[in-house]
Specification:
- It is a single chain.
- This protein has 29 helices and 5 strands.
């Protein structure tokens, strides 16, 4: 099949989009449509079906996954194999005025030599028209969206299969699968959106579905509170989303278009004012902070663990929280130019990400609930991604999103497997020694933990190392480079790596080592999960092992060049007219070695504490301990204070609920009531009383006394005059003549007086 391709140089007058491509690329809209239709079918007919609607959801998402895979292969073919066909290309005019039919523009940048232009596929149709503005609905298919289609559909499919066992017999089983399908459809719709208005719709749909699924067991107040907290926190960030998108519409879209590529192209070409870009970038960063759990708006995310574990896996791995990261990647020119990422050493997005990375990781150390450990781990890893985007390491950020999805879904589903056996998520009270009862779950959890910790050669090592390289802050023994010298962020990234390795070592020990501390409640020892839970774990563990090799760094000895940086080649829109010209750091073995040693140091300290000291004390005491009874937090005041701050989650929940909400519901509400009663009502009452007094005065003095008096007096005078005239009307001619003469004399006098004046 031939492809219509547009010239791929990011200069004025050149567009890198086409409407003519492989059938799968042109019709990718079917992928979100199928789970959306399954939502309706399950909702209305699910309870009458043999499997209560689960079979429809699995079938729909399964077909979507197959289509996503085929779309991925079509994109690879589209990216590397094509024919120039000027008859179908739109805007295929290069800088010198000639058409792209006769020439091919190739681009190259540091470490990413492009052999073919990067051409996105865009298909859209008019939604409605108002005020001379056309509102379109369509799809934008490029490497970024194709990657997300694969990740979302695969993990959603595995979650669907896993859920048939995990929530089997649930009181709202059909309702659960209906919203699971809608959740998947919403995220797929969001990543395919070709304009910012459509992105807002997808963004909000994802939020609504997460609200319904987090509060799935709404009868229990903590669950409904968690759902409401997630909803309200995201609404706070959505104010920034709306302000940012409106700013982009007028500043970059000229008040005429919402089209994403057009907006990005205008920014790349330098036609948008910097002040407008700063406003848009800062506003959209606020949206990212809420949706993607960045510090200080991350507090909803750990509480969202109140929902079923498969939902937690889907939220943390492939949907909801990565929506903010995806939005930054999609609208990257806004941030790259607005925050002046290139050539800098600090900016808002990178700093927010770095703080989130470290402070989120610290909170994982004091959690007893295994799901909350993983939740704060997600907060920390999202910080990694935001920091990477903030330092200009676009491909590294997206690659980490890709790898993180598999090992984090693996860990969440693994925690659910353990909790399913002991009916609890408390590692300290109800777990311990679980490797004896669940060896298969244990192996998959270890693989996920090692990948998360960035241990070579698992997936997390490669993506984490690329982020550190992308900071450009490492100058020892060659390597790096990048878009600036973000040394502070490099340091925070290394600290985050050490923290990750340490808290995952703690989680592994408390869950799977030592002696079993739980109560079987007369059901015998815990046992291994069934195949519908284990098979998804096997698949995700396998992905956590191999996906890191999809983006091997350039320059590796013995590795064919065609195997190097494949992910970046197909995913990053390098040279596209809607993507900024970013620089790429070069690999540094010294950085990889040092960062790995730091991670091993964190894991080693945790291993020494739990696997050596605590384990030895447990054997001596004859019971399974979860920590040393005379630990540092009990003997050192500074450590005790720090531990208290972490246990109270930096008092942010107290700030939001106790101070802000409490002040709003308490003193502020009372003050508002006092103002209402004494100022507003007092003013209204005073005006009313004054009006009554004025009305009384007007009625009694003016109306009754003056007006009525004048009228009554006139009546009396008229009556007297009439009486007198009647008396004078005696029929005598001489009387009439006298009156006539008097009247004529009076009229003449008045006339003379007027003439004199």
């Amino acid at each position: 099949m031939s492809f219509s391709v547009l010239a791929a140089e990011a200069v004025s007058g050149v567009s890198t989009r086409t409407h003519d491509a492989n059938w799968f690329l042109e019709n990718a809209w079917i992928i979100p449509l199928l789970p959306a239709l399954s939502f309706l079918v399950i909702l209305f007919f699910g309870k009458r079906m043999p499997k209560k609607g689960a079979e429809v959801g699995i079938a729909a998402v399964g077909i979507s996954f197959i289509l996503a895979v085929l779309t991925g292969f079509a994109w690879i073919d589209h990216r590397d194999n094509f024919e120039l066909d000027g008859g179908h290309a739109e805007h295929a005019i290069v800088a010198d005025g000639s058409t792209a039919t006769d020439q091919l523009i190739l681009t190259a940048d540091a470490g990413h030599a492009a052999t073919h232009p990067y051409v996105a596929v865009q298909n859209s149709t008019q939604w409605w028209q108002s005020g001379g503005i056309q509102f379109d609905a369509g799809i934008l298919v490029d490497g970024l969206s194709v990657m997300m289609l694969f990740v979302v559909s695969l993990i959603s499919l595995l979650v669907h299969v896993y859920s048939t066992d995990y929530v089997g017999g649930d009181r709202r089983y059909t309702h659960y699968f209906a919203f699971l399908s809608l959740f998947t459809a919403s995220m797929l719709f969001f990543v395919l959106s070709d304009n910012i208005l459509q992105m807002i719709v997808g963004w909000e749909l994802v939020g609504v579905c997460s609200f319904a699924l987090i509060g799935h067991w709404w009868e229990e107040k903590p669950n409904s509170d968690a759902a409401l907290k997630a909803f309200l926190t995201n609404r706070a960030g959505d104010i920034g989303l709306l302000v940012g998108m409106i700013t982009l519409f007028f500043a970059a879209g000229g008040g005429k278009t919402f089209d994403t590529i057009t907006i990005n192209e205008n920014i790349v070409q330098g036609t948008v004012g910097h002040t407008a870009l700063v406003v848009a970038a800062v506003s959209l960063t606020a949206a990212v902070m809420s949706k993607s759990g960045q510090f200080i708006l991350h507090t909803w995310l750990p509480d969202a663990m109140a929902g079923p574990t498969p939902v937690s896996a889907l939220i943390h791995a492939a949907t909801m929280v990565v929506a903010g990261i995806y939005m930054v990647a999609r609208l990257y020119p806004v941030f790259f130019e607005g925050m002046q990422i290139g050539g800098s050493s600090i900016n808002l997005l990178a700093t927010v990400g770095a703080i989130t990375l470290v402070f989120g990781g610290l909170l994982a150390f004091v959690q007893d609930d295994i799901k909350k450990v993983l939740a704060y781990s997600t907060v920390s890893q999202l910080g990694y991604m935001a920091m990477a985007l903030g330092v200009g390491a676009w491909t590294a950020a997206v690659f980490h999103l890709f790898t993180h999805a598999f090992f984090k879904a693996n860990l969440f589903l693994g925690s659910g497997s353990v909790a399913h056996a002991v009916h609890s998520f408390d590692m300290k009270k109800d777990m311990g020694g679980m490797r004896k009862f669940m060896p298969k779950t244990y192996i998959t959890f270890i693989i996920g933990s090692l990948a998360l910790a960035g241990v070579f050669p698992l997936a997390g090592f490669w993506s984490k190392d690329e982020i550190l390289v992308g900071t450009g802050g490492w100058g020892l023994f060659g390597g790096t480079g990048g878009n600036g010298a973000y040394t502070l962020h490099l340091t925070m990234g290394m600290i985050g790596a050490a923290l990750t390795a340490a808290y995952m070592t703690r989680a592994v020990y408390l869950t799977f080592h030592g002696e079993f501390r739980g109560d079987t409640h007369g059901h015998g020892d815990p046992h291994e999960s069934g195949p519908r839970i284990l098979v998804p774990l096997y698949i995700l563990s396998g992905m956590a092992i191999v996906v890191g090799f999809l983006n091997l760094p350039a320059g590796l000895q013995g590795i064919p060049e065609s195997w190097q940086e494949r992910f970046g080649h197909f995913i990053e829109p390098s040279g596209a007219s809607y993507f900024p010209g970013i620089a790429h750091g070069t690999p540094s073995w010294s950085l990889a070695i040092v960062s790995s040693l730091i991670a091993f140091a964190g894991a080693g300290l945790a291993f020494l504490y739990y696997f050596v000291w605590v384990d030895r004390r447990s054997k001596h005491a004859g019971e399974s301990l979860t920590g040393l009874p005379n630990g540092l937090t009990t003997t050192n005041a500074i450590a005790r204070t720090g531990h208290k701050v972490l246990v109270n989650k930096y008092y942010l929940d107290h700030l939001y609920t106790g101070v802000i909400a409490g002040f709003t519901k308490g003193p502020l509400a009372r003050a508002a009531n006092w103002v209402n009663q004494n100022v507003i009502d007092g003013t209204v009452n005073a005006v009313g009383e004054s009006s009554v007094r004025t009305g009384t005065l007007v009625y009694e003095k003016i109306d009754q006394g003056l007006v009525d008096g004048f009228i009554n007096g006139s009546g009396i005078v008229s009556d007297a005059t009439g009486q007198e005239l009647r008396r004078m009307n005696s029929g005598r001619v001489q009387n009439y003549a006298a009156i006539l003469f008097a009247g004529a004399a009076l009229a003449a006098g008045v006339f003379v007086l007027l003439l004199a004046l």
